[in-house]
């Protein structure tokens, strides 16, 4: 694993800086590192929003994201979205989401996401939404979702990483 030390240092500096609003913050909790936490502005009247983030497990034991909550939402669930027969479907992960040892799990459009339901107010671009993540081992970890524009496909500066995706087909989203 030699040679991986420097990039981590560079990322930490950005977090301390707080002068780089485009970069999502990095949160460390035990063996977990959470980055790229973001969401999207909600179109008028939408009561749900999806939250995305990247969780890296640097440890030698698996952990599990078992739940989440957000002040802005009446209820927050962990969902999985998948394509089956050309139809996008999503379902709650009743047993949470495993973060295997040494692995990185990405919650991103067309995959896993936090489902923020019963929103108390619309999410606007530039908002910072605080979410509390519940991990089996790491415990409660707070992260902040950077709200991007309505059509955003990734956290700030990551524009078109999704490749061929046109939209994420999420409930409440229209083309
Ligand atoms: Cu969902």
Keywords for this structure?
46% strand; 1 helix; single chain; binds copper (II) ion; mainly beta; eleven-stranded mixed beta sheet; Immunoglobulin-like; globular; 175 residues
Task: Give a description of the structure.
The protein is mostly beta strands. The protein has one domain: Immunoglobulin-like (Sandwich). The chain contains 1 helix and 11 strands, in the order αβββββββββββ. Strands 1, 2, 3, 4, 5, 6, 7, 8, 9, 10 and 11 form an 11-stranded mixed β-sheet that branches. A hairpin with a 2-residue loop joins β1 and β2. The longest helix has 13 residues, at 5-17. The protein is globular. Mean pLDDT is 83; it is low at 11-22 and 159-169. The chain binds copper (II) ion (CU).
Strand content: over 45%
| Average predicted local confidence, pLDDT | 83
Which consecutive residue ranges, at least 5 long each, have pLDDT under 50? 11-22, 159-169
CATH topology: Immunoglobulin-like
The name of the CATH superfamily reads PCu(A)C copper chaperone
Our Rg estimate from Cα atoms comes to 16 Å
> What oligomeric state do the depicted chains represent?
single chain
For the sheet with most strands, the description reads: 11 strands, mixed
Taken together, the total number of domains comes to 1
The H/E string reads HEEEEEEEEEEE
**End-to-end Cα distance:** 44 Å
Q: Tell the overall outline.
A: globular
Number of helices: 1
Per CATH, which architecture?
Answer: Sandwich
CATH class: Mainly Beta
Briefly characterize the structure.
With 175 residues, the chain is mainly β. The protein is built from one helix and eleven strands, in the order H-E-E-E-E-E-E-E-E-E-E-E. The protein has one domain: PCu(A)C copper chaperone (Immunoglobulin-like, Sandwich).
């Amino acid at each position: 694993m030699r040679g991986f030390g420097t990039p981590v240092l560079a990322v930490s500096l950005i977090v301390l800086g707080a002068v780089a609003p485009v970069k999502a913050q990095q949160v460390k909790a035990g063996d977990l590192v959470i980055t790229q936490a973001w969401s999207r502005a909600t179109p008028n009247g939408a009561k749900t929003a999806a939250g995305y983030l990247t969780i890296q497990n640097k440890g030698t034991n698996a952990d599990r994201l078992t739940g989440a909550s957000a002040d802005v939402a009446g209820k927050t669930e962990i969902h999985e979205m998948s394509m089956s027969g050309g139809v996008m479907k999503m379902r709650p992960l009743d047993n949470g989401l495993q973060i295997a040892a040494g692995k990185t799990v990405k919650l991103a459009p067309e995959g896993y996401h936090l489902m923020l339901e019963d929103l108390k107010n619309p999410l606007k671009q530039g908002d910072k939404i605080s979410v509390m993540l519940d991990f089996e081992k790491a415990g409660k970890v707070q992260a902040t979702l950077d709200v991007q524009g309505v059509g955003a496909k990734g956290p700030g500066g990551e524009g078109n990483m999704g490749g061929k995706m046109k939209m994420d087909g999420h409930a409440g989203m229209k083309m």
